[in-house]
Amino acid sequence: MLMWILQSAIMLLAILLAVAFITLLERAYMGVVQCRRGPNKVLLWGIIQPVLDGMKLMVKTLNKPFYLNYLLFTFIPSINLLVFLLFWIGMPYLFSLFDFYLNSLFVMILLGMLGFGLLLSSWASNSKYALYGSLRSMVQSISYEICLSLIILMMLNLKDSFSFYVTWKGFLSLELLFSWMFYLPIIMMILAECGRTPFDFMEAESELVSGFNVEYGSVEFAFLFMAEYGMIITLSILFCVLLSSVMSNYLPIIIISSVLFTRYTFPRLRYDYLMSFMWKVLLPVTIMIWVMIFNVKIL
After folding, report:
1. Rounded to whole angstroms, how far apart are CA atoms 109 and 224?
2. How distant, in Å, are the alpha carbons of 49, 90, 156, 208, 290 from that of 203?
3. Using one digit for the tens of pLDDT, what is the confidence trace for 232-291?
4. Sign for the pseudo-dihedral over CA of 150, 156, 159, 162
5. Rounded to 5 degrees, what angle do the CA atoms 293, 165, 232 make?
6. Residue 240 burial (CB < 10 Å; 0-12/13-18/19+)?
7. Is residue 156 within 8 Å of residue 105, measured between CB atoms?
8. Rg of the Cα trace of the chain?
9. What sign does the CA torsion over 110, 111, 117, 119 have?
């Protein structure tokens, strides 16, 4: 029991540190893209810049409007962060920490719950700008989570198991050739899931005044911010393990870098373009691939 608690504490600390330092990585990439220096003044190469940024957010004055739902407004950001941390219960580990058979279904349920956290946080703000941003995010999530679930179920069907631990076994040589076709759609779905450019419709500042989190500040905003950046890491590792487990030590940083660099490369798309692409292009292609794989598996 003591060893399990120690392993869980180390895992939690590693996750939170990774979330903190991905912000430093993004700002360093931003400096490279814009031909300027990134955060490099604080200590060695700006290594403690994320710590200072977090401390600055924590000590900011917490101003709450008088018209909000106080209970939900206070606790929903913490619940969003908790849902993000629960993803790591279903992740496969080299050592036995949280090993249960239906961990893939557990992760898919949590993916569906993320949108409800955004909707409740905006509704608790009692602000029409926040509500518009959350409604757009819910419609957006419905459009791509169907494709996301089909891809996850497709790979698990090939492995004949609902456990992510089985992805370490099976067609290790064939999956390198087979899984490359999914990387571009998966990066697009990670961008949409995390609200990143060019799919940051839930936080389109020019249209929605920062979207669902417009009324949040200080600690509550920090929790929402940590959950958003943490999902980039979580989904990148998850899909690398799922699609090509033999290269899961190297591909997460490639996918994370692709997600971060996309922010400085592409402008924000029109909202209907994402809807049209997900429903008219990506979903039919995913279903077609599913039918092909299912028929081949039967044969």
Report:
1. 19
2. 24, 28, 33, 7, 33
3. 888 888 877 777 766 666 778 888 888 888 888 888 777 778 788 888 888 888 888 778
4. negative
5. 85
6. buried
7. no
8. 20
9. negative
The amino acid present at 284, given as its one-letter code, is P
> Which residue is associated with the tokens 């977090």?
54
pTM of the model: 0.85
**90-140 per-position pLDDT tens digit:** 777 666 666 677 778 888 888 888 878 878 888 888 877 777 777 777 777
CB neighbour burial string for 8-20, b if at least 16 within 10 angstroms, e if fewer: eeebeeebeebbb
What is the Cα–Cα distance from 62 to 216, expressed in whole angstroms? 9
Task: Give dist(CA 156, CA 167) in Å, integer.
Answer: 8
| Length of the chain counted residue by residue | 299
Backbone angles phi, psi at 97, to 5 degrees: -115, -65
